[in-house]
Amino acid sequence: MSRLQNKTALITGGTTGIGLETARQFIAEGARVIVTGSNPANIEAARGELGDKALVIQADAGNTEGQKAVVEAVRKAFGHLDILFVNAGIAEFGPLEQWSEVAFDKSLAVNVKGSFFLIQALLPILSNPASIVLNTSINAHIGMPNSSVYALTKGALLTLAKTLSGELIGRGIRVNAVSPGPVATPLHSKFGLSDADAKAMGAQIQSQIPAGRFGNSSEIAKAIVFLASDESAFTVGAELVIDGGMSTL
């Protein structure tokens, strides 16, 4: 398996869940990889697992100035970049009346603003051809209660995938998106729910998935490998929805 042989790749939010599994699969396909993360414990765990097959660095995805340091790390390690998987994000849920401006701004900064300015900063070192994959969500398509801000940010990323496709394809840069449905990743442990409430939430969500189960990170990563590889050279501005049929209901 060498679909990404001699390719260089950056994965934001690559120390757990979908990002870490994508790093594993990128490496297995021959890519040289940098992953970013913000949690020191997760960073050390990822370093221990990936070893010298990947460079793992600490970065705050919501800090636009910090994106320049990420770009410099890529430049120093590779000199150029062939693949960018924008995966870093936060998922905060709550009813409309409970949202504060501070919390709203945090979600926008991490999920949208940081992503936008990272892509901007990487432009001078992106190869021709290059592939950018944005991790969005089916929440951009369905009216799930309490997901207003999260869905808003993911809808913005979908729009970005389409507009940047038109803008960057002339430079040989393809931009596409994956929109996962419910996936069993550590992200779900960050909702701040009790064990009982988390179990009830999981059962309620699973009941809405025609496939009858949550997805797994490997299934999402396989789609990302396809979009990152030359196999998808004619795939531009597309969205791969991987949700077990949830958005068809």
Description:
The chain has 249 residues and is of the alpha/beta class. The chain has one domain: NAD(P)-binding Rossmann-like Domain (Rossmann fold), CATH 3.40.50.720. It has seven helices and seven strands, in the order E-H-E-H-E-H-E-H-E-H-E-H-H-E. It has helices at residues 17-28, 40-50, 64-77, 101-122, 148-168, 195-206, 217-228, and strands at 8-11, 32-37, 54-58, 81-86, 126-135, 173-180, 239-242. It has a seven-stranded parallel sheet with strand order 3-2-1-4-5-6-7, with helices on both faces. Helix 2 (40-50) links the parallel strand 2 and strand 3 (54-58). The longest helix is centred in the middle third of the chain and has 22 residues, at 101-122. It is globular.
* Domain module count: 1
For the biggest sheet, the summary is: 7 strands, parallel
User: How many whole angstroms does the radius of gyration measure?
Assistant: 17 Å
The name of the CATH superfamily reads NAD(P)-binding Rossmann-like Domain
Principal-axes geometry comes out as globular
Instruction: State the low-pLDDT regions, or none.
Output: none
Percent range for β-strand residues: 15-25%
Number of strands: 7
End-to-end Cα distance, whole Å, is 36 Å
Mean pLDDT across every amino acid position = 93
Q: How does the helix and strand content classify structurally?
A: alpha/beta
How would you spell out the order of helices and strands?
EHEHEHEHEHEHHE
SS summary, helix count: 7
CATH class: Alpha Beta
> What is the CATH architecture annotation?
3-Layer(aba) Sandwich
Remind me, CATH topology?
Answer: Rossmann fold
Strand order of the largest sheet: 3-2-1-4-5-6-7
What share of residues is helical? Answer: 40-55%
